[in-house]
């Protein structure tokens, strides 16, 4: 793209800048202000030039306070220049005066660059893995002064300036240095500190001034509806989570108990006046609750900055900034650390698939399709009215990969659940014929997105062992959770959308009809070990008129509660890690809304308290029994006991692991008690009933087997005869000899 001509600033015998340069500086159109402003050689000495609107007199000083010379006003708009008595080029401070008083400022154009040639090389190559230490706004010490270093990628811009209240949002006053080859613009503004709102004023390649842009690498943002980025101090939090991180760095998560509590931070609970809890308030309430309920991880819907509350965070404009809704970035760090000290992991929903088209965001960032594809057949998402990242551009891939690394390094997050992976993998996702462009091989697969996901997973797992990635992927794309070197996408886990869909479909049927849908339950075991699965009962199932999990269950109110308890125990006994959206652990009746808190008063009522107690006990069993978690992702840990009793809608299987007693899981999905029901078991002896969802303490009818059944070898094969309570799941554990 054509850049404005950077006229070489020559000085005449009197050291004066050419009139054209002065006019261009005042107009904010000069292509290289560093060639004009600051300290410049003039003959055997130096001149200083500055642009200080509203000043009538300017005197130059060294940083040590020595007066260096008076500057003359060349232009009434505020352009000053004059000879200075210094022996070498160095930063200067100015004392400016007008009729209203005087003020001091340090000249940003008298400082050298902060970024170096190696930064240029790795940024241009797209291999820089610490972009978040270079781009954005960083408070640093530089050449004897403290201030903020700004850097932003805008390769097609004619001019980029930093604007804020500190310069009256005047884009002429802090025009940035163009690093030419990389498209990076940078500027060190001395004397600037933390807490300053700022944006970038960008003149596009056509000379048109764009709407002010927030910083793509902003580490803090203003609270919506304000949209400016904010200069953030270096993180002050001192971490104390070494034990937690050390454990997971050595663990194989496939063989660990992982039970995830999915949370929307803005509506889990609220203050009495309806406002959001701060991170510290959330920590004081949410972390103890999660510990008490027995979950191992909290998964937050996206907490990066986003302008629109009803997007739930999935349309983010600030991937590097924890949203200001809940306080400052250090507050989020304290939350994560507090969770870790309590033994709870923190997973973030992460959205690299698309971004909103709000004018202050990434869309047409430098006046061109920079982060997105220019062609709407590739760059526009019809479902969400959003822009799609250009995964074929190395700088965009680097921006996203660095963001994944950033959350793991700076905030110690334990994992990323990657949203809408299917929309990334298929070029024809939600598109009709003619509305998409095939790949270079003529296919519908987005090969560039595949490459990006593989790179992201390789870098994240390579640099941060102990961190896991989870794909929300709803198709049969192969090897989503297999290593990249085996041809996989490299994720640690994949959401099992089929499990969620089939089981909810089955349980929505009246019990008398379930016999005709028996395969909805059994089919999932055909592919249960094709990936490392998480079983998700997520927020997507309780919004947009879908009701709640309780309302999805067939029958009257008692049957709904009984079926939901049986379903949870069925799920906790099924191979795969567990995920439950907030409120479903106590059978929330109202559909979830981001506008209000959950209905916590329901816990005062026995049926709801019983569901919560069921989930709590299931989490305890799942974590304490290796048979229920250590082979979640391996077929050796599962075997059917009863697979074909469709007439009674009974299912039974065995879970096992080398270092734990086997556990039989038996579900009866009809309201009819099954007396003297024979269940084959692998070994004779006593089997203890470790949970029965029909127990009175949970709100059930209290039917059961007195806590124990006896398996014997009579009748050709070991089995036990027992009572299966109505609409229930029981688990039996072999009592060690």
TrEMBL record:
The keyword Glycosyltransferase appears for this protein = yes
Domain called Glycosyl hydrolase family 13 catalytic: residue spans: 262-629
- InterPro entries in the record: A-amylase/branching_C, Branching_enzy, GH, GH13_cat_dom, GlgB, GlgB_N, GlgB_N_E_set_prok, Glyco_hydro_13_N
Q: How does it assemble?
A: Monomer.
Q: What does this protein do?
A: Catalyzes the formation of the alpha-1,6-glucosidic linkages in glycogen by scission of a 1,4-alpha-linked oligosaccharide from growing alpha-1,4-glucan chains and the subsequent attachment of the oligosaccharide to the alpha-1,6 position.
Q: Which NCBIfam families match?
A: branching_enzym, PRK05402.1, PRK12313.1
- In Swiss-Prot or TrEMBL terms, this protein is called 1,4-alpha-glucan branching enzyme GlgB
Origin organism of this chain? Answer: Mesorhizobium vachelliae
Name the encoding gene, please.
glgB
């Amino acid at each position: 793209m054509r850049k404005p001509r950077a006229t070489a600033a020559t000085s005449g015998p009197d050291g004066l800048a050419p009139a054209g340069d002065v006019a261009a500086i005042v107009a904010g159109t000069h292509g290289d202000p560093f060639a004009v402003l600051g300290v410049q050689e003039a003959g055997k000495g130096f001149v200083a030039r500055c642009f200080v609107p509203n000043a009538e007199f300017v005197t130059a000083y060294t940083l040590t306070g020595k007066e260096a010379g008076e500057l003359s006003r060349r232009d009434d708009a505020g352009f000053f220049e004059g000879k200075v008595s210094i022996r070498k080029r160095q930063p200067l401070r100015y004392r400016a005066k007008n009729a209203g008083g005087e003020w001091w400022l340090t000249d940003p154009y008298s400082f050298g660059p902060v970024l170096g040639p190696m930064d240029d090389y790795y940024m241009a190559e797209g291999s820089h893995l610490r972009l978040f230490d270079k781009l954005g706004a960083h408070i640093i010490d530089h050449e004897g002064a403290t201030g903020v270093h700004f850097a932003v990628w805008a390769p097609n811009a004619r001019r980029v300036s930093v604007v804020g209240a500190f310069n009256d949002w005047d884009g002429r006053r802090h025009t940035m240095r163009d690093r030419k080859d990389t498209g990076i613009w940078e500027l060190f503004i001395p004397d600037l500190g933390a807490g300053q709102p700022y944006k970038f004023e960008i003149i596009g390649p056509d000379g048109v001034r764009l709407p002010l842009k927030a910083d793509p690498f902003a580490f803090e943002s203003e609270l919506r509806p304000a949209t400016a980025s904010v200069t953030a101090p270096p993180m002050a939090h001192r971490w104390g989570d070494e034990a937690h991180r050390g454990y997971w760095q050595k663990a194989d998560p496939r063989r660990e108990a992982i039970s995830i509590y999915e949370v929307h931070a803005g509506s889990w609970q609220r203050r009495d006046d309806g406002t959001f809890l701060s991170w510290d308030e959330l920590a004081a309430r949410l972390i103890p609750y999660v510990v008490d309920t027995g979950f191992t991880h909290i998964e937050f819907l996206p907490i990066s900055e986003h302008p629109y509350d009803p997007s739930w965070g999935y349309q983010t404009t600030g991937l590097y900034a924890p949203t200001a809704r809940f306080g400052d970035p250090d507050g989020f760090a304290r939350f994560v650390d507090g969770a870790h000290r309590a033994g709870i992991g923190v997973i973030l929903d992460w959205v690299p698939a698309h971004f909103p088209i709000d004018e202050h965001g990434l869309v047409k960032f430098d006046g061109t399709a920079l982060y997105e594809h220019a062609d709407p057949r590739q760059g526009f998402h019809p479902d969400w009215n959003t822009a799609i990242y250009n995964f074929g551009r190395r700088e965009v891939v680097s921006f996203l990969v660095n963001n994944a690394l950033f959350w793991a390094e700076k905030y110690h997050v334990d994992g990323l659940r990657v949203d809408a992976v299917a929309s990334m993998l298929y070029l024809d996702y939600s598109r009709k014929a003619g509305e998409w462009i095939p790949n270079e091989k003529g296919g519908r697969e987005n090969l560039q997105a595949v490459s990006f996901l593989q790179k992201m997973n390789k870098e994240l797992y390579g640099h941060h062992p102990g961190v896991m990635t989870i794909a929300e992927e709803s198709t049969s794309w192969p090897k989503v959770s297999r290593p990249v070197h085996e041809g996989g996408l490299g994720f640690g886990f994949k959401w099992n959308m089929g499990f969620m869909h089939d089981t909810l479909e089955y349980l929505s049927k009246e019990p008398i009809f379930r016999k005709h849908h028996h395969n909805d339950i059994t089919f999932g075991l055909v592919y249960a070990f094709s990936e490392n699965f998480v079983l998700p009962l997520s927020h997507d199932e309780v919004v947009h008129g879908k009701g709640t999990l309780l309302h999805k269950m067939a029958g009257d109110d008692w049957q709904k509660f009984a079926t939901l308890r049986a379903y949870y125990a069925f799920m906790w006994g099924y191979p795969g890690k567990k995920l439950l959206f907030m409120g479903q652990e106590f059978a929330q009746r109202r559909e979830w809304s981001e506008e209000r808190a959950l209905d916590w008063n329901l816990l005062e009522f026995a049926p709801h308290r019983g569901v919560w107690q069921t989930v709590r006990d299931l989490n305890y069993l799942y974590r304490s029994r290796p048979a229920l978690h250590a082979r979640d992702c391996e077929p050796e840990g599962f075997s059917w006991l009863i697979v074909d009793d469709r007439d009674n809608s009974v299912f039974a299987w065995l879970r096992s692991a080398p270092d734990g007693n086997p556990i039989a899981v038996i579900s009866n999905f009809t309201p009819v008690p099954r007396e003297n029901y024979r269940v084959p078991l692998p070994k004779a002896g006593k089997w203890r009933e470790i949970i029965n969802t029909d127990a009175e303490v949970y709100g059930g009818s209290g039917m059961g087997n007195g806590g124990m059944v006896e398996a014997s070898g009579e009748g050709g094969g070991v089995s036990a005869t027992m009572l299966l309570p109505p609409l229930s799941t029981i688990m039996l554990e072999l009592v060690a000899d």
